[in-house]
C-alpha cells in the first residue's frame, strides 16, 4: 500500500534539497534560481533594509540570498550554516538590524522563501513529510530535545504528518534501488556540520520490507570543521590569534573564543552586533598588535563572511583535484595569497579524521557487524568528495566495495520513498 503525496526534506548545513512522491517513485523538486532551476538550494538567508517591504526588512534564501548579498554586501546581513546551532542551548536568537530571530523563525523564513521557488510543490498538501536529521547534532553539548522542538516549529504546516529519519537512512533507501541482490551496506553521509553512519541490510528486490536498519553513529564534525582548520592556519594568525593585550600591568594572551566564533560560519555573521563590535574595539585598543584586531573588525563590519567562505571552499575543491593550490582572499585590509598542499590540509584535519573513524567504529559496534561483513560502502554528502575522507574507507574496506554518487540529493530522494512505506515506524526516530 502506498500513501498519497509525501515530501522528503533534507535540511542541510550547506545545502537543502527536497523530493516529492505521488506514486511509487520519488522526484527531486527543481527550485527556481537566478541561473536556472536546480534541486540543490543553498541553506542561507540574506536580510536587508527595505522601506517597501512589510516590516522594513527584505529576506531572500538560497541562491537568491547570495545574489542579494553580492549586490550590496555592506548593507546586508548574510546568515549561513544556521542548522549548526539547532541543538545549541547557548543560541537564543540572531540579531538582524533591530530585530531578533529565534532558530525556528529563521527556519520558517527559509522554508517560506524556498517554497516560493518550488512551483507549489511545498504547498502543505502532502500527507506525510519526512525530515532528515543527523544521528548526532553538531555542537559541544547538543540538546536533542531542543533541536526536536525547534524542528517541529520550523516544519509545522508542511504536511498532515511530520516524521524524522536519520539522514544516512534516507541515502540507504535511495541507494537500495541500485542493488539487484541482497547486501549489508554501510552508508557514510558527510555534510557540512555532521558525519553520520548507518548500517542497513538490504533484501532482494520485491521483498515486502526491503531495508532493515541495524545500527547508527555520528559525530558533529564534517566540512565546516575542515573549513575552520583552513581559517585557523591561514587567516586567524593575521587577525590576532596567538597575540597579546595589556590588562593593567599584565600582558595576557587574547582569549581564543573570539577566533573560535570567527571561524564558525554559523556564528561569524552573528558577530556583527553593537556589543561584540564594541568589545572588539576595546580589545583592539589594548592589543599589542592593534592592526590585527582592526582587520578582524573590518571583515565583520564589511559583512565579508561569505567572501571568506567562498575562498575557503575554492581551496578545498582545488585540493580535491590537485596536490597543491593557492588560497586567495582580499578584503577588510586583509590580503592573503598562500600556497597550500594537500599534505598540509590533511595534516590540519588529522585530529578530525581520528574522531570520524571512531564514529564508524561505533556504528559497526552498534550493529554488531565486523568490517569484513560489509558488502558495500555508500559515500554521500558533499564532504565525501574530500580525498582524505574517501581514502579512509578505501584503506579499510577496499576500493571494490566503495560506491558513491548523488552526493547532494540521495538523502531527500530516499526520505520521500520512506514516506510511502507502511512500516514508517521502522525508520523514524522518536
Could you provide a short overview of the structure?
With 430 residues, this protein is α+β, with helices and mostly antiparallel strands. It has 14 helices and 20 strands.
Quote the beta fraction.
Answer: 25-35%
Poorly predicted parts: none
Separation of the first and last Cα atoms: 23 Å
Radius of gyration: 22 Å
The helix content, as a percent range, equals 25-40%
Q: Give a short account of the largest sheet.
A: 6 strands, mixed
Mean pLDDT: 94
Structural class: alpha+beta
Instruction: Tell me the number of helical segments per DSSP (H or I, 4 or more residues long).
Output: 14
Q: In one word, what is the shape?
A: globular
The beta-strand count equals 20
Explain what the structure shows.
The protein is an alpha+beta fold and 430 residues long. The strands form six sheets. Strands 1, 2, 3, 4, 10 and 11 form a six-stranded mixed β-sheet that branches. Strands 14-13-12-19-20 form a five-stranded mixed β-sheet, sandwiched between helices. Strands 6-5-7 form a three-stranded antiparallel β-sheet. Helix 2 packs parallel to helix 3 (144-155), helix 4 (167-176) crosses helix 14 (410-418) and helix 8 (274-286) runs antiparallel to helix 9 (290-301). The longest helix has 18 residues, at 350-367. Helices cover 36% and strands 26% of the residues. It contains 14 helices and 20 strands.
Amino acid at each position: 500500500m502506498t500513501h498519497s503525496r509525501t515530501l522528503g526534506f533534507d535540511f542541510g548545513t550547506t545545502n537543502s534539497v527536497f523530493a516529492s512522491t505521488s506514486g511509487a517513485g520519488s522526484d527531486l523538486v527543481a527550485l527556481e534560481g537566478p541561473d536556472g532551476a536546480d534541486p540543490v538550494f543553498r541553506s542561507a538567508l540574506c536580510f536587508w533594509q527595505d522601506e517597501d517591504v512589510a516590516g522594513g526588512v527584505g529576506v531572500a534564501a538560497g541562491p537568491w540570498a547570495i545574489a542579494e548579498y553580492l549586490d550590496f554586501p555592506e548593507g546586508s546581513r548574510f546568515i549561513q550554516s544556521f542548522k549548526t546551532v539547532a541543538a545549541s542551548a547557548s543560541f537564543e536568537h540572531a540579531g538582524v538590524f533591530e530585530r531578533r530571530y529565534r532558530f525556528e523563525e529563521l527556519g520558517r523564513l527559509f522554508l517560506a522563501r524556498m517554497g516560493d521557488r518550488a512551483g507549489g510543490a511545498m504547498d502543505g498538501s502532502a500527507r506525510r513529510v519526512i525530515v532528515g536529521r543527523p544521528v548526532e547534532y553538531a555542537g559541544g553539548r547538543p540538546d536533542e530535545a531542543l533541536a526536536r522542538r525547534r524542528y517541529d516549529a520550523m516544519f509545522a504546516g508542511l504536511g498532515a504528518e511530520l516524521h524524522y529519519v536519520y539522514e544516512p537512512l534516507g541515502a540507504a533507501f535511495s541507494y537500495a534501488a541500485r542493488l539487484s541482490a541482497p547486501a549489508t551496506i554501510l552508508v557514510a553521509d558527510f555534510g557540512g556540520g555532521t558525519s553520520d553512519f548507518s548500517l542497513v541490510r538490504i533484501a532482494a528486490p520485491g521483498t515486502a520490507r526491503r531495508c532493515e536498519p541495524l545500527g547508527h553513529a555520528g559525530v558533529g564534525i564534517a566540512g565546516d570543521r575542515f573549513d575552520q582548520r583552513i581559517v585557523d592556519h591561514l587567516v586567524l594568525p593575521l587577525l590576532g590569534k596567538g597575540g597579546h593585550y595589556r590588562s593593567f600591568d599584565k600582558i595576557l594572551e587574547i582569549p581564543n573564543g573570539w577566533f573560535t566564533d570567527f571561524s564558525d560560519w554559523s556564528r561569524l555573521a552573528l558577530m556583527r552586533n553593537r556589543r561584540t563590535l564594541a568589545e572588539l574595539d576595546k580589545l583592539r585598543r589594548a592589543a599589542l598588535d592593534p592592526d590585527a584586531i582592526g582587520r578582524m573588525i573590518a571583515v565583520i563590519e564589511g559583512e565579508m563572511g561569505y567572501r571568506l567562505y567562498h575562498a575557503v571552499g575554492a581551496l578545498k575543491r582545488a585540493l580535491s583535484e590537485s596536490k597543491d593550490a593557492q588560497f586567495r582572499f582580499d578584503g577588510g585590509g586583509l590580503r592573503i595569497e598562500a600556497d597550500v598542499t594537500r599534505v598540509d590540509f590533511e595534516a590540519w584535519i588529522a585530529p578530525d579524521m581520528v574522531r570520524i573513524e571512531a564514529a564508524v567504529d561505533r556504528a559497526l559496534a552498534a550493529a554488531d557487524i565486523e568490517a569484513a561483513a560489509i558488502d558495500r560502502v555508500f559515500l554521500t554528502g558533499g564532504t565525501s568528495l574530500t580525498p582524505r575522507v574517501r581514502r579512509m574507507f578505501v584503506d579499510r574496506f577496499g576500493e571494490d566495495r566503495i560506491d558513491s554518487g548523488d552526493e547532494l540529493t540521495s538523502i531527500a530522494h530516499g526520505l520521500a520513498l520512506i514516506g510511502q512505506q507502511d512500516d514508517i515506524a521502522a525508520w523514524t526516530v522518536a
